[in-house]
Amino acid sequence: MTHSSTLLAYAGRNTPRYTSYPTAPHFHEGVNAEVYASWLRKQDLDTPASLYLHIPYCREMCWYCGCSTRATRRNEPIAAYVRTLLTEIDLVADLLPRPPRVTHIHFGGGTPTILNEDQFAAVMARLRERFSVPETTEMAIEIDPRLFTRSLAEHLSAGGINRASIGVQTLDPGVQAKINRIQPLSVVARTVDHLRAAGIANISFDLLYGLPGQTRDSCLETLEAALSLAPDRLSVFGYAHVPHMKRHQKLIATGDLPGPEERVSQAMAIAAAAQDNGYRPIGIDHYVRASDEMAALARHGKVRRNFQGYTTDQAGFLFGLGASAISKLEAGYAQNTPDVKAWTKAVEAGIPATARGIELTREDRLRGEIIERLMCELEVDIDAVAARFSAPFELPDLTDLEADGIILRDGARITLANDCRMLARIVAARFDARLPHSTAGRHSISV
Ligand code: SF4
């Protein structure tokens, strides 16, 4: 058993979340519209694709928000955004050699359910027109339960949505007041009822710990209330306080934030309670029912990690649509500008709105695979990964992690110790060749 002071010493360090490798701070402006267009033209379409559509609008800002979004009370900016999104779907489809087969579609934000029924139907129709979207495609959407109706649930279902991820975060009224997100359990329960009644049976909840005023007990009370609604999956994230990057987070009183010790205690309490209630842990922060597809994939080492976190998506590449959206192609990562005006201007001129990205080298792919396996399975056989890439790989120095009981080593196989899964980011960082050249302060605390 790892000593709690050792856990704490590591948990307080800043590390990337490793939803990609190389991580976003290493993207550069050399990957521009021209480069992205050339990547699209030569993309191999024999393997299936994923689509991510970003909707960067909310009705009001939650003060903890780390997403690329803005608040608006008006409907016109949303209508204009959807018009450009339809144009961007055409633009990407026109650049590809032929329509790819799409096996996963994810609507994220912001608040994708801010789209009205006609706007959502128009986007779905354009996707089906320009891409090959089989009946079996998983179509997921992020839902703000405060803005959800039975009618919208029925429209989403009719459009093909079959998975919903609900932002629950916390059900503690005191904490909700400190983050400007008032959302009683009854609102979440009503949303779940609407979804299930409309036939959208796969439901995930997002929960947060480390929020201002949150305690271990309030986290457990939220979890217990959330589990009364029987979600299929839970994603449990630590609040990342980065007011230098997200100015609205300055509205959160720093003195109200739990320290590293309390954060570790909250994360561990939630992990234990979720498992006591029959949920299987996936990676560092997901919990799924034993009957869930993700649990089955986990048994075969096939869970993947992408910008939305853990996923069953096995697609070979991803097209990101909308302001700030990131694409992952064979050649590398490309990110659209987060500036909605600049994104609109480029797309309406028939040019991809690419602002930055990175070309992938063979070494990046190899390191990315090691990091993804560590983040998903909490263990990796370095020799097996190196063999797949036909490249030798020299192990970094892991002596301290081994001596401190964070990892176990058997030759080139590295396994996180049982009580250290929350430190996977720390171990992954040892395989990140680019981290020493970035500023650790740009990343959030590891737990
Ligand atoms: S609803 Fe979601 S995306 Fe919008 S401000 Fe709140 S946390 Fe951010």
Give an overview of the whole structure.
The protein has 447 residues and is of the alpha/beta class. The chain folds into two domains: 27-359, Alpha-Beta Horseshoe (pyruvate-formate lyase- activating enzyme); 362-445, Orthogonal Bundle (Arc Repressor Mutant, subunit A). Helix content is 36%, strand content 21%. It contains 15 helices and 21 strands. Strands 10-11-9-8-7-6-5-2-14 form a nine-stranded mixed sheet, with helices on both faces. Strands 15-16-17 form a three-stranded antiparallel sheet, covered by helices on one side. A three-stranded antiparallel sheet has the order 18-20-19. α3 (76-95) runs parallel beside α4 and α5 packs across α7. The longest helix has 20 residues, at 76-95. The chain is globular. The two termini are 18 Å apart. Residues 58, 61-62, 65, 67, 69, 109-111, 144, 167 line the site of iron/sulfur cluster (SF4).
Outline:
36% of the residues lie in helices and 21% in strands.
Oligomeric state: single chain
Largest sheet: 9 strands, mixed
Bound molecules: iron/sulfur cluster
DSSP strand (E) fraction? 15-25%
Share of helix among residues?
A: 25-40%
Number of strands: 21
Radius of gyration of CA atoms, rounded to a whole number:
21 Å
Strand order of the largest sheet: 10-11-9-8-7-6-5-2-14
Distance between the termini: 18 Å
Q: What is the CATH top level name of the largest domain?
A: Alpha Beta
CATH superfamily of the largest domain: tm_1862 like domain
Globally, the shape reads: globular
Total of domains: 2
Q: Are there runs of 5+ residues with pLDDT below 50, and where?
A: none
Average pLDDT reading: 94
